[in-house]
Write a structure and sequence with these properties.
The chain is an alpha/beta fold. About 30% of the residues lie in helices and about 25% in strands. The strands form five sheets. Strands 8-7-16-17-18-15-19 form a seven-stranded mixed beta sheet, with helices on both faces. Strands 10-2-1-14-20 form a five-stranded parallel beta sheet. Bound molecules: flavin-adenine dinucleotide.
Length: about 425
C-alpha cells in the first residue's frame, strides 16, 4: 500500500481492530473511531463489582487451527496467552442419565478416532460419523444440517446438536449445512491439532483487545472513543463525508472500513441487505474456586447449562441459542444453572455470588436464509468496505470470521489504491 493513504475504520470490535492492524502494517494512516468508551464490542472484559473480579462478557472459545487468530495474536505478541488442552479431548456429561465420556480426536489428519468406540461418543456408530461427510457436499444455499444428517437419535443429541449449537448459535436443525461444513473442514476434518479448544487467559481484553490498542498507539494511530458515526454521505460511487454528530466532515481521497454491527450498518446504508435474525447467548459466572481436579471445560447435555468452564476463582457457564430463557428472572436462572454445575462438578456448597450476562443479539442466526443476507466486503462505493462477523466470511459468526473480515477489508482498500 502506498504510504500515506488514509483509512477511517469505524468500530473497534475485533473486525475493526483487525482491519486497523492490517492496514497499519501495510503502511496506511489509520484513524479508528469507536462509538462507545471502550474497544472489544461483543468480545470484551469488564470488572464486575458483584463478583469482585474481571470477567469476560462470555466464555469465548477459539480453535487451535484458527489461522486469522494465529496471525492477529502473532502480530500483537499474545499468541502464547491462548490456553487449551494438549490434545483435542472434549469432556461430556449427560445430566439425563448421569453418563460421562470424553470424545478424543486423534492429533493427525487421518480420523482414526472415529473407528475406535472408546474415543467416540457412547451409543454412536462409525457409520453416523462418516455420514457427516455428506455436509461436504453442501454449497452455499438453502440446505440445513437436518437435510444432510439424521436429526433423530443419540448421534444427533450427543454430537451434532451440542457442537453445532455452540458453533452456529441457532437451533442446529435449522443451521446452514454449508456453514457447518466450512467450520468442520477447518477444525475436525484437519485432525486434533486443529481443534483443540483454546481460551484467552486471563481475559479477552488482555489477549485480544488491549494489546491491539497498545500496538496501534505505538504506531501513532489515533483511536477516538465516543465517536459514533451517524451518517455517511455518498456522491456517485464514493463516500465523500462522515458525520460523527458535528456535521459532515469531508474524507477527501480516504477510504472507509465500516466494521459496525449489521443493524447499525443497515441504518447507515439504507438499501444494504444484512442478517436480521439474531440469537441470544447467556453466560453465568459464579465466584468460587472450581473443585480440585475439575476438567477445565465440560459440555453438558440434558440441562440448562451447556458449557462449564473452570477459571481461577470462578466457574462460568455458556448457553447458546438462549432465546427461550434469556428473559427469565436472574435468580431463577442462576439457581437452575448452579444445580447443573453442582451435578457435574460435585460442588456441595450453597450457590455462590453470581452474575448473569445476557447478550440478546449475540450473533446472527446461522441459517441458510440469514447466510444469504450477508453482504460482501466490497460495496458499490469504491472507497467503502464492510467488515464484521456478519459479512460474507464463509464462516459462522466467530472471532475467526471477524478477524478475517478485517483482513479482507484491508486487502480490498489496498487494492483500490493500486487501481
Ligand atoms: C456472549 C458471546 C459469546 C461468544 N462466544 C464466542 C466463541 O466462543 N467463539 C467465537 O469465535 N465467537 C464467539 N462469539 C462471537 C464473537 O464475539 C463475535 O463474532 C465478534 O466479537 C464480532 O466482532 P465484530 O467486530 O464483527 O463485531 P462487534 O464486536 O459487534 O464490533 C462492532 C463495534 O462497532 C461499534 N459501533 C457500533 N455502532 C457504531 C457507530 N455508529 N460508530 C462507531 N462505532 C460503532 C460497537 O460499539 C463495537 O465496538 C460470542 C459472542 C458473544 C456475544
Amino acid at each position: 500500500m502506498t504510504s500515506g493513504h488514509t483509512v477511517h475504520v469505524i468500530g473497534a470490535g475485533l473486525a475493526g481492530l483487525s482491519a486497523a492492524v492490517e492496514l497499519t502494517r501495510r503502511g496506511a494512516q489509520v484513524i479508528l473511531h469507536e462509538a462507545t468508551p471502550r474497544a472489544g464490542g461483543r468480545c470484551r472484559s469488564y470488572f464486575d463489582r458483584t463478583l469482585g473480579q474481571t470477567v469476560d462478557n462470555g466464555n469465548h472459545f477459539v480453535f487451535s487451527g484458527n489461522e486469522a487468530v494465529r496471525r492477529y495474536l502473532g502480530e500483537l505478541g499474545t499468541a502464547d496467552q491462548l490456553e487449551g488442552p494438549a490434545h483435542a479431548d472434549f469432556a461430556f456429561h449427560d445430566l439425563s442419565d448421569g453418563s460421562r465420556w470424553t470424545l478424543a480426536v486423534n492429533d493427525g489428519p487421518l480420523p482414526w478416532w472415529v473407528f475406535d468406540a472408546r474415543r467416540r461418543t457412547p451409543g454412536t456408530t462409525l457409520a453416523e460419523h462418516l455420514a457427516l461427510a455428506r455436509l461436504a457436499l453442501s454449497r452455499r444455499g438453502p440446505a440445513t444440517i437436518a437435510d444432510r444428517v439424521d436429526s433423530n437419535g443419540t448421534f444427533w443429541d450427543r454430537v451434532v446438536d451440542p457442537m453445532m449449537l455452540a458453533v452456529l448459535n441457532c437451533p442446529p436443525s435449522e443451521g446452514s449445512a454449508w456453514l457447518a461444513w466450512r467450520f468442520l473442514r477447518e477444525s475436525f476434518a484437519r485432525g486434533g491439532r486443529a481443534c483443540r479448544t483454546m481460551v484467552a487467559v486471563p481475559t479477552l481484553d488482555a489477549v485480544f483487545i488491549d494489546p491491539a490498542l497498545a500496538w496501534l498507539r505505538a504506531r501513532q494511530v489515533p483511536v477516538h472513543f465516543g465517536a459514533r458515526l451517524r451518517d455517511l454521505k455518498m456522491d456517485g460511487d464514493h463516500v465523500v463525508a462522515l458525520d460523527f454528530g458535528a456535521g459532515p466532515e469531508a474524507v477527501g481521497d480516504a477510504a472507509v472500513v465500516l466494521a459496525v454491527p449489521p443493524w447499525v450498518a443497515q441504518e447507515l446504508i439504507a438499501d444494504l441487505v444484512v442478517p436480521d435474525r439474531f440469537c441470544a447467548i447467556l453466560n453465568a459466572h459464579f465466584a468460587c474456586a472450581p473443585p480440585p481436579g475439575a476438567r477445565p471445560i465440560t459440555a453438558l447435555i440434558g440441562g440448562t447449562a451447556q458449557w462449564v468452564v473452570c477459571h481461577a476463582g470462578r466457574i462460568s457457564v455458556t448457553i447458546s441459542g438462549a432465546d427461550d430463557i434469556i428473559d427469565l428472572d436472574r435468580e431463577a436462572l442462576a439457581a437452575r444453572i448452579w444445580k447443573d454445575i453442582a451435578a457435574t462438578l460435585g460442588c456441595e456448597a450453597p450457590m455462590p455470588t453470581y452474575q448473569i450476562v445476557k447478550e440478546k443479539r449475540a450473533t446472527f442466526a446461522a441459517t441458510p436464509a440469514q447466510d444469504a443476507r450477508r453482504p460482501a466486503a466490497r460495496t458499490r462505493w469504491r472507497n467503502l468496505f464492510l467488515a464484521g462477523d456478519w459479512t460474507q466470511t464463509g464462516l459462522p459468526a466467530t472471532i475467526e470470521g471477524a478477524l478475517r473480515s478485517g483482513e479482507a477489508a484491508a486487502q480490498l482498500a489496498e487494492a483500490s489504491w493500486r487501481g
